[in-house]
Design a protein that fits this description.
Blueprint lengths: L1 E4 L8 H20 L6 H13 L4 H11 L6 H7 L17 H9 L3 E5 L4 H11 L8 E3 L7 H7 L10 E5 L2 H10 L3 E5 L15 E3 L10
Parallel strand pairs: 1-2, 1-4, 2-3, 4-5, 5-6
Length: 217
């Protein structure tokens, strides 16, 4: 069996740890560009409230700039902060039992990672969370976050047995919908942004801890 994982809010706590830190940096960048914020902490809370119901941090920042009447050209500058390197002492927690479960599953299954975003930043997050790349037979990082082509590359040998492929991720549209289209087993991780996604009837399993995977595979 091949198990394909997402990284953010599936293996690591992105929403709880990385996003709040990065949003402050984005807000400071926008303030430096001339965006009128009023009290910084109130503006930060407003941005985080928008982020809490957005599909991505980049969409939240875009909506915030529009709401505040900022220049459209400021978006690229703010978004650059999202993938800038983290401080050397920045620690990232995994989701509960993530490393333990990966090590256990690797004994009997092939594991792969498909995570969208800036490749250098995604690998930095893995390093700071202590997730060894050697746990995975393949790591693919599509910068456009479109995952179906990556899934197809990884699963050529499973064309006649798609139910031997399991995809686990938090975002239904990005992680799971393309897996469903290919006939794979879909596991929705209810963590971070996965908590704001409405479930779909075609999702095979819904979990809140990776330890639950042991009862699925």
């Amino acid at each position: 069996m091949l198990i394909i994982f997402d990284l953010d809010d599936t293996l690591i706590d992105t929403t709880g740890q990385i996003t709040p830190f990065k949003m402050r940096l984005c807000l400071k960048r926008l303030q430096g560009l001339g965006l009128s914020l009023g009290l910084f902490e109130e503006a930060y809370q407003e941005l985080m409230a928008i982020n809490a119901v957005s599909l991505s941090s980049s969409k939240a920042i875009k909506l915030f700039i529009e709401k505040k009447g900022g220049e459209p050209g400021w978006l690229a500058s703010a978004l650059a902060e999202l993938s800038a390197p983290l401080p050397s002492n920045f620690f990232i927690s995994t989701t509960p039992f993530a490393k333990q479960i990966l090590e256990e599953l690797k004994r009997n299954h092939s594991l792969a990672l498909v995570t969208g975003g800036n490749p250098a930043f995604q690998r930095e997050k893995m390093e700071k969370a202590g997730i060894e790349p050697t746990l995975f037979s393949n790591i693919l990082i599509p910068e456009d976050s479109v995952k179906k082509p990556s899934y197809e590359v990884l699963t050529k040998e499973f064309l006649d047995r798609p139910r031997d492929v399991v995809v686990c991720g938090d975002r239904i549209l990005i992680d799971l919908a393309p897996a469903y289209e290919l006939g794979f087993v879909t596991v929705h991780m209810r963590w971070g942004r996965g908590l704001i996604n409405q479930t779909e009837p075609w999702i095979d399993y819904s979990i809140s801890s990776l330890s639950e995977l042991k009862g699925i595979v």
